[in-house]
Design a protein that fits this description.
Mean pLDDT: 94
Shape: globular
Radius of gyration: 21 Å
Strand order of the largest sheet: 2-1-3-12-11-4-5-10-8-9
Bound molecules: nicotinamide-adenine-dinucleotide
Low-confidence stretches: none
Order of helices and strands: EHEHEHEEEHEHEHEHEHEEHHH
Largest sheet: 10 strands, mixed
Structural class: alpha/beta
Number of strands: 12
Length: 363
């Protein structure tokens, strides 16, 4: 039976990567019934200025599974991030970003195998912000002066909420993920020494949850110390659990350990749906050039196959990607020693090579 999956091509390099990934997934022989839905700035005029039309959310809720290309967010001005809104609206609280070394990848590190678990609904990403000079910002600054301390009157303010509920469920999720995936250690990451009431609460709840999971080792690290340790000894870590903002930053750092953003997949899990998407963004400067690396999105497709219990297809697709990497012929510019290497191939040629490995016809 075909799996019904919402397919969101996104913008920038998204549509090319989505097409390549769709081909790779279909080359496994698994049947999909794709429900293609568009979101982002390119479609907002059609939907009354809304970059995330209701039908996109309805489709994801109906199918329970989506594969999504990256979507551009204007910096500083314009609409709120479609990605953040999607995660908040569907309560996709558990973001999983595996970072794994594949043989043949140019990297300073070998044998890295980390899972970044990021809480994706709270923290400074919650979208609770007060614009500099606004009436609300001035009222809040006035209130803070009476209750907490002086904030300069010309400040903009972003609020960092961390709850017991949000923290408990992300650690329960992380321990559960660790057990199901044969991982041995969970590390809680924080800055509890400075932010005692937000990160301090996070650490306190993490320790409580860890007590209920004695089969899995547990420790914690302050986020700045973790950054240094990750670049010195990444092999000492297994599953890292982070609040939203640190999770965003550390997952890019970990992507750098395994060869870059072109190889970093991701998944967002919630109670109602799971959305699979690469860690990277829409890289607008490469849009439409058949240049970007589709492997991060294809590896997100591997995570989706596992979620759909298509374990054999997931294994075969991952092996096909690993073989193409190891051969080093049909890979994009970012996986070559020099960025202008003339032997680099394009996005669609990577899809051809992977389809061929899987025994599917090449167009
Ligand atoms: P980016 O990840 O889009 O690109 C940064 C750089 O990484 C690119 O210039 C390119 O050199 C490289 N890169 C990224 N993906 C690559 C790929 N598949 N193959 C080869 N090289 C690749 O980050 P950015 O420039 O900070 O963000 C661009 C836009 O994407 C922004 O609007 C941002 O908000 C958005 N974004 C979206 C998502 C998402 O949809 N989930 C995630 C991150 C960023």
């Amino acid at each position: 039976m075909a799996h019904s999956v919402t397919l969101i091509p996104g913008d920038g390099i998204g549509p090319e990567l989505t097409e390549a990934t769709r081909r790779a997934l279909e080359s496994t022989g698994v049947q999909f019934d794709w429900d293609v839905q568009h979101a982002g700035s390119d479609v907002m005029d059609q939907f009354g200025g809304n970059p995330l039309p209701d039908q996109v959310l309805e489709s994801i809720e109906r199918n329970g599974v989506a594969l999504k290309g990256p979507i551009t967010t204007p910096i500083g001005t314009g609409f709120r991030s479609v990605n953040v809104t999607l995660r908040k609206t569907l309560d996709l609280y558990g973001q999983v970003r595996p970072c794994k070394s594949y043989e043949g990848v140019r990297s300073r590190y070998e044998n890295v195998d980390l899972i970044v678990v990021r809480e994706a609904t709270e923290d400074l990403y919650a979208g609770i912000e007060f614009e500099q000079g606004s009436e609300d910002a001035l009222e809040l600054i006035d209130w803070l002066a009476r209750h907490a301390g002086n904030v300069r009157p010309d400040s903009g303010i972003s609020i960092k909420p961390i709850s017991i509920h949000g923290t408990r469920r992300i650690f329960e999720f992380a321990f559960d993920y660790a057990r199901k995936n044969g991982r041995h250690k969970v590390t809680a990451v924080h800055k509890a020494n400075i932010m005692k009431f937000s990160d301090g609460l996070w650490l306190h709840v993490a320790r409580e949850v860890a007590e209920g999971h004695s089969g899995i080792e547990f420790d914690d690290r302050i986020v700045d110390n973790l950054c240094m340790q990750l670049v010195q000894r990444p092999e000492e870590y297994d599953v890292l659990v982070l609040p939203n903002l640190y999770g965003d930053i550390i997952s890019d750092l970990c992507a750098g350990l395994v060869g870059g953003l072109g190889l970093a997949p991701g998944a967002n899990f919630g109670t109602k749906a799971a959305v699979f998407e690469p860690t990277h963004g829409s890289a607008p400067k490469y849009a439409g050039q058949n240049k970007a690396n589709p492997m991060a999105m294809m590896l997100s497709g591997v995570l989706m196959l596992r979620h759909l219990d298509e374990t054999d297809a997931a294994d075969r697709l991952e092996v096909a990607i690993a073989e193409v990497i190891a051969e080093g012929k049909s890979v994009t510019y970012d996986m070559k020693p020099a960025r202008d290497d003339p032997t680099a191939v394009g996005t669609s040629q990577v899809a051809d090579a992977i389809a061929e490995k899987l025994g599917a016809p090449v167009w």
